[in-house]
Structures are given as C-alpha cells and as structure tokens.
Specification:
The chain is an alpha/beta fold. It has 14 helices and twelve strands. The termini are far apart. Keywords: Metal-binding, Zinc, Zinc-finger.
Length: 440
C-alpha cells in the first residue's frame, strides 16, 4: 500500500503542541524561554522557525537563555573546582585517597552524570563525556531560522538534516509547509539513541480552528493509519489538544444551573481549609470491625488535615495537629488530592489495614490550589505531558520539597526517630516531591 505524501516524514518524529497567548496561557516568548531553559545541554541541535517579523523576538529569547545556561554552568564548574582544591589542601602524604577527602554527597554516584548523546555515565568531575565529547552543562546549539512558505530548497535559511529538536515559534501556513520544515530533522540518531526527534508547535487559541491547524490535524490523522499502536497513542495525545473537527456534545450544557459558572468556579475547592483560615485539623475514626480480631480500647485512626501552605509557618500549625492519643504505631502521609481536598471524607477507616490493632496516624497534605507545583505548559500537561523535556517548574518543586521535609522530620520525631514507621502514599506527579525526603 502506497504511503501518502508527507506521512513518512511525520511518523519519524514526536509531534507536540502548546497553546500560547491570551489571558489563560503564557506568551510565545515565555513559552520558548521555558522550553530552552529545560533543554538538556547534550540533547542535540535545535532550530526555531519564526516568521521574518518575529525573528528578532525569538533571537532575543535564545540569547537570553544561552547566557543564563552558561552562567549556571560556570557557577557549577567553579563549585566543583573549589571542592577539589579544598580537598587537595588537606590531603597530606599517607592520608586517605583524594576521593575519600571530598564531601561524601559530592563524590557519591548521585552526582555522576549521564551523557544524553551516548548514555555513558561520567564521573562527577568530568566536564565532557569521555566517549563522545558532549559538553556538560553547556547550552545546546539553537538556531533561529526564517520560515518563508515561498522559499524553495535553494534559498533555505537552514540546513536540512541539521537538528534534533524543531520548535515552530510561528505555526506553518499549511500541512505542506509543516512537512517541509520536518526536513530540518536529523535523518538518523546514531549518536543520540535515547533522545527522540521532536517537533513542538506554538498555537494561539484563535488559530486552532484555522485552515493551517486543520490541515495539520488531517495530516496527523492520516499518519495515524500507518503507524504502530504506541505511535497511534502518541498522535492521539497531540490531536486531543488541537483537533476541533468534532465537537464534544457533553460540553454543551443545557441546564441553566451551569450558565453562570466560569473556569474559576470549576477550579476552586470548597473545603473549609481553602474557604476559611484553618491551619490544621484532627479527627478520630474507629477501626473497622474484623471477624476474629479484637482491637485495643484506644484503637482509632487519627486523621490530620494539613494545608501545604501551613508548613511555611509550621510552629503555628503544630498545636492543631498534635496527637491526642499517645503511642500511635505508625504514620501514613497521603499526598494525592484528586483535584479536591475532600475525597476521603466518610472513608477514613479504610486507611487502616485489617490487621491493625493500635492507633494509626494519617496526615492528609492538602496541596495549594490542588496542585503541588507550577506547570509552565499546562496545555501540554493536559495532552499527556512530554517525554523529551521537563515540564515541571523546579522552583515550585523545590519549595514543596522543603515544606514536606519539615513534615517528615516532625512525624519522625513523634515516633521517637523511628522513621521506618512512616509510609508515603500517593500517585501521579505528587510522589516526585518526596524522592529526596524519602532518601533522607
């Protein structure tokens, strides 16, 4: 069966889209900055396609990101050099090897780094990969190219097969132009086996129903019929964000009760902690009866509800969440809020295992605005996330890490330092927050 034109080029890359502009989404410049700040230094060259009128804006963002990345790399390199110099100055003859003189955290395997091009694990002090020479912490090569639909192969402002990542700062005017830009992607990935070829396209909401967007939708749908199931799922994720050819009838509300609702009403949580100024609360629930098992007289589940923001001034919250039952056997810290803060109400007894005979403490941590951290690209998150760039905001994640570490330390102290009796529960991205506290 003959493959339609353009399909072969489309199915060799990952296609993702980000909604930009307007009141609800970040601007093109902000989104481009977010992407470039998160590109691994060894991810391979990238090309940003922009119209002639917006080329200067894109170039300014790329230059700003480059300076920021190089400054951060210089600070990191200076820190490593300083650590080595300090170790050398105290390493006298007959003493332990230099590697043992270094700060244990700095010399551990957790500070070794994996090359994104060849996957080799390199030592902590290495500035470049010993196998392929990829520089550590450097800014990837990013070129801003003028996207002119009328340009022919002899007048291109970019070199075919020259990049690993393609960013459409300005959307292509047609499906044919979209395919033509795909020619910038490298024909093979021999030097970078773990990093996919990616096409990321910025789209404004007003462009989603336009001719160009719908031609790209049609192209992706056609390609879907010529790929394996995993690639179909990937394409479906992209289509879920930009395909408006079929309206969802479920979104056409006919009930007058919904006419006055807006987006803020849907996102707001109506629990007492969000609507009021409660810094923490505690409730008690009897254990479920179990045939053949006799519970102790004071066997209960002690449930603490604690807003994440209350941990910023934790001393004020501590009296409100202090244990009322002495000698609880373990603590369960529950993270996932299911987009609301009240899904557990009325079901608290089910947190305890059937064999429990003592008191169990359950701490329900209530995220700010039902989210543990910020998402620079919320539209991409809704389309299934990204396999090639970190869409999470590290500053807000570090803030949550710091606050949650306080809680873990507090609960460990209540258990007389027996931190092995603390269980962390959650799913989705919430558990990412606890990777460092859990290892502590």
């Amino acid at each position: 069966m003959a493959v339609p034109p353009g399909v072969d080029a489309v199915r060799k890359a990952v296609h993702q889209f980000g909604i930009v502009g307007g009141e609800d989404y970040d601007s093109k410049d902000e989104r481009l900055q977010q992407l470039l700040d998160r590109l691994p230094a060894d991810s391979g060259p990238a090309i940003v396609f922009a119209k002639a009128a917006s080329q200067a804006q894109a170039v300014a963002v790329v230059d700003r990101s480059r300076r920021k990345a190089l400054a951060a790399a210089a600070r990191s390199r200076a820190g490593r050099v300083k650590a080595v110099e300090a170790a050398v100055s105290t390493n006298t003859a007959g003493d332990a090897p230099l590697s043992e003189k270094l700060d244990p955290e700095m010399s551990s395997w957790t500070h070794d780094w994996a090359c994104g091009r060849c996957t080799l694990i390199n030592g902590w002090l290495a500035e470049e990969c010993t196998a392929c020479g990829a520089r550590r912490g450097a800014f990837p090569k990013v070129t801003v190219a003028v996207a002119d639909e009328k340009a022919n192969i002899r007048s291109l402002s970019w070199t075919p097969g020259s990049c690993q990542i393609l960013i459409n700062y300005d959307v292509a005017r047609s499906a044919a132009e979209y395919v033509r830009r795909l020619g910038a992607l490298e024909p093979q990935e021999a030097n970078n086996p773990r990093f996919p070829r990616v096409v990321y396209t910025f789209l404004e909401e007003g462009q989603l129903r336009g001719r160009a967007a719908q031609e790209i939708v049609a192209l992706l749908k056609t390609t879907r019929g010529y790929v394996e199931p995993s690639k179909k799922a990937e394409i479906d994720s992209a289509l879920g964000l930009i395909d408006y050819t079929e309206e969802d009838e479920d979104e056409e509300w006919e009930d007058e009760d919904y006419e006055d609702w807006d987006d803020e009403d849907w996102e707001a949580c109506d629990c007492a902690h969000c609507c009021g100024s409660i810094v923490g609360s505690t409730s008690y629930h009897p254990l479920l009866p179990v045939p053949g098992l006799e519970h102790k007289a004071m066997s209960v589940i002690e449930v603490v509800r604690l807003p994440l923001k209350a941990l910023e001034d934790f001393d004020k919250a501590v009296p409100f969440i202090a244990p009322r039952v002495i000698g609880h056997s373990c603590t369960l810290i529950c993270l996932h809020c299911l987009n609301v803060h009240t899904p557990w109400d009325g079901w608290e007894q089910f947190f305890a295992p059937s064999q429990l005979t003592g008191t169990m403490r359950v701490v329900l941590v209530l995220a700010d605005g039902v989210s543990w951290h910020d998402y620079p690209d919320s539209a991409l998150l809704g389309a299934g996330g990204s396999s090639w760039v970190d869409i999470l905001d590290m500053d807000s994640m570090d803030r949550s890490d710091m606050l949650l570490e306080r809680l873990v330390d507090h609960e460990a102290a209540l258990l007389n330092g027996q931190s092995e009796r603390i269980v962390l529960m959650g799913n989705s991205a919430t558990m990412n927050e606890f990777c460092r506290p859990a290892r502590k």
